[in-house]
Amino acid sequence: MSKFGLTLAVIACIALPGDAVAQSDAKIDVTGKWIFTVATDAGSGTPTVTLKQTGDSLTGHYSSQVFGEVDFKGSIKGKELKFSFATAVQGQSLTVSYAGTVETPDTLQGTVEFSGLGGGTFTAKRQ
């Protein structure tokens, strides 16, 4: 390989990580009202979730026919978000946990788990 070719290869290797870091450092803000589409073995639903992001912290409100109205706390680090809340269904207490990624500024996707009793997937779109 010529010195010129080697120099270009080194510059490319040095430039790539910086570009990747710049893209991952882009400000993500999920604050707003979201419509979730949840699919589980037990059925599907479309809860409305209002998120408020302050730094790496999330707070919000979950509204659905199954779980009713529930406030929650969570976190967001980079493109990864998590939140959970405690609720009761037919007299049984359970924790509902969401974990997902920001796919675009207006879409989310991930998984949901119900106290280890089952789970499913979700997608969400900002309203």
Walk me through the structure.
The protein is of the alpha+beta class and 127 residues long. It has one domain (32-126): Quinohemoprotein amine dehydrogenase alpha subunit, domain 2 (Lipocalin), CATH 2.40.128.120. Helix content is 17%, strand content 60%. The protein is built from one helix and nine strands, in the order αβββββββββ. The protein has an eight-stranded antiparallel barrel. A hairpin with a 2-residue loop joins strand 3 and strand 4 (57-64). It is globular. The model is unreliable at 3-25 (pLDDT under 50).
CATH top level is Mainly Beta
Which bin fits the share of residues in helices? 10-25%
Query: Spans with pLDDT under 50 lasting ≥5 residues?
Result: 3-25
Largest sheet: 8 strands, antiparallel, barrel
**Shape call:** globular
Q: Considering the protein shown, what is the CATH homologous superfamily? A: Quinohemoprotein amine dehydrogenase alpha subunit, domain 2
What is the strand arrangement across the widest sheet? 1-3-4-5-6-7-8-9
Number of strands: 9
Write down the CATH topology.
Answer: Lipocalin
- Report the order of strands and helices: HEEEEEEEEE
- Rg over C-alpha atoms, rounded to the nearest angstrom: 20 Å
Compact description:
The protein is an alpha+beta fold and 127 residues long. The protein has one helix and nine strands, in the order αβββββββββ. The chain has a single domain (32-126), classed as Quinohemoprotein amine dehydrogenase alpha subunit, domain 2 (Lipocalin).
